[in-house]
Amino acid sequence: MKNKIILVCDDEEGILDVVEMMLDAEGFTVYTELESAHVLNRIKEYTPDLLIVDLWMPVMSGDEVIRKIRGSEEIKSLPIMVMSASRDGEGIAFDAGADRFISKPFDISAFVSKVDELIG
């Protein structure tokens, strides 16, 4: 059991379900959030070891979420992985301060490998 906590934020429930099942099978404790505007509160509530966030979401985009985290003294060192179907997503994610990026649709083993690189 890895005993690491991962918070996943995506505005598509189907993606959240798949990611939660994948990471749960790897022994991680997974919390999900549909609304990007709630991520900062969830980070304080769950104190995750990793945040996985979609780039394009309503209300607050993933890069906005990352910039808020990187600007917060309390949580700025939280590892962040971005997942996106956007062609420009990787550059946007890294410019905002993400640690890893994975394209949607993603390969399960590549996804888990990137998570392990960050917190495994």
UniProtKB/TrEMBL annotation:
- GO annotation (BP), single: phosphorelay signal transduction system
Residue ranges occupied by any Response regulatory domain in the UniProt entry: 5-119
Q: Which UniProt keywords apply?
A: Phosphoprotein
Q: Does the keyword Phosphoprotein apply?
A: yes
Q: Which PROSITE patterns match?
A: RESPONSE_REGULATORY
For this protein, the record's Pfam families field holds: Response_reg
Where 4-aspartylphosphate occurs, residue numbers? 54
Organism of origin is Chryseobacterium hagamense
The record's listing under InterPro entries reads: Bact_response_regulator (IPR050595), CheY-like_superfamily (IPR011006), Sig_transdc_resp-reg_receiver (IPR001789)
Protein name per UniProt: Response regulatory domain-containing protein
